[in-house]
């Protein structure tokens, strides 16, 4: 069996090995390209402080680049008996380059290595999430503008309340995403700080140049305090989890609305039949399973910060193996979130709106406040107008005027979607994706 990086003078118990590795090899595959990037920055820095030869650096960089390409082609594997991605990369280097490969770990621990891997992975995923959120946002704004003038009932207590519109309904979820994007940006900024050089959590006696690896990897700054850098493990995941949860919360609510409004008793929206699913027994069925699955997956995603909190909140300062298990809930969460975001955008783009809802007199009472306001504007005291309209409705004598004029900010006649879009764009511009992409490309020699 292959040796562990830390194996010395005794045989490792195979049951202990099975249990301590667990699902870690599978999880570490998510991190492989980022492990390589982190190593490229680390060895470039090691050469600059004399811990690697001038002639050795390009050889090692070239081999790391090969390994990176393997990760991109899906050919990178963590072999049986190899503990994790960090061990696998080092093994590949030493197999190919001998002693030179063994030099790369100076001034580093797997503790700061996995930290930097997680930061680089998460940073990349957050960019994909931001882009997918923006795509969904654009679909919602487009639908909001398209159906600006189509009225629908607004509800309180699930009782018909006041006139609303599809413009408002779609636009509300767009603005919700604009707020979620602020959370995402805060999570991104916390993520985009360099933990490398903190080693096992207490730094190193080598004169490591942490600013250099910070710049090479395109981080905004470093996690300055080495103890804090290690304490950030789990904290970053939890806070990113909160950002994921707030986006998922927006989608879950939208999905619930869509399921409800799609039900025959409402009939406000409809999915094209090829986007519905059927029943094995009831031949008439056209079910909105897609929204139900978005709702359930999004609700599950909202438990992410709680799950992470429970795994880390009773740990004192310093590294613990507990942290490894966070990867099992955190790393796959991005695929699920991205799938939901893309599917929501896909289905919102195809959703059909009923523009004849108000032909049904059961919704007439939603114009009651309009009538009260009209009477009040004509001079009748508001309370008297309220009473008159209430009694008219009870007596079945209410004929609504459906010609409504709401003009104040953010209401039916004045959606302010341009302001919402500006808010979203302003947040997006603040991430700084371009600088990060350039740094990574440069490190990879592209
Ligand atoms: N698989 C480990 C993790 O995810 C990597 C770090 C191992 N460090 C250690 N001291 N055992 O946390």
UniProtKB/TrEMBL annotation:
- Going by the entry's taxonomy, the superkingdom of the source organism is recorded as Bacteria
Claim: Lyase is one of the keywords in the record: yes
Group of enzyme by EC: lyase
**Molecular function via GO:** argininosuccinate lyase activity
Cellular component annotations (GO), alphabetically ordered: cytosol
Q: Name the chemical reaction catalysed here.
A: 2-(N(omega)-L-arginino)succinate = fumarate + L-arginine
Pathway of action: Amino-acid biosynthesis; L-arginine biosynthesis; L-arginine from L-ornithine and carbamoyl phosphate: step 3/3
For this protein, the record's Pfam families field holds: Lyase_1 (PF00206)
Q: Recite the UniProt keywords alphabetically.
A: Amino-acid biosynthesis, Arginine biosynthesis, Lyase
**Which GO terms fall under biological process for this protein?**
L-arginine biosynthetic process via ornithine
Which intervals hold domain Fumarate lyase N-terminal?
38-300
Q: Which residues form a coiled coil?
A: none
Is Amino-acid biosynthesis among this UniProt entry's keywords?
yes
Record-listed E.C. numbers: 4.3.2.1
Gene3D superfamilies given for it? Fumarase/aspartase (C-terminal domain), Fumarase/aspartase (Central domain), Fumarase/aspartase (N-terminal domain)
Cited PANTHER family: ARGININOSUCCINATE LYASE
NCBIfam families cross-referenced by the UniProt entry: argH
Q: What's the protein name?
A: Argininosuccinate lyase
Q: Native species of this protein?
A: Prevotella communis
Q: What is the lineage of its organism?
A: Bacteria, Pseudomonadati, Bacteroidota, Bacteroidia, Bacteroidales
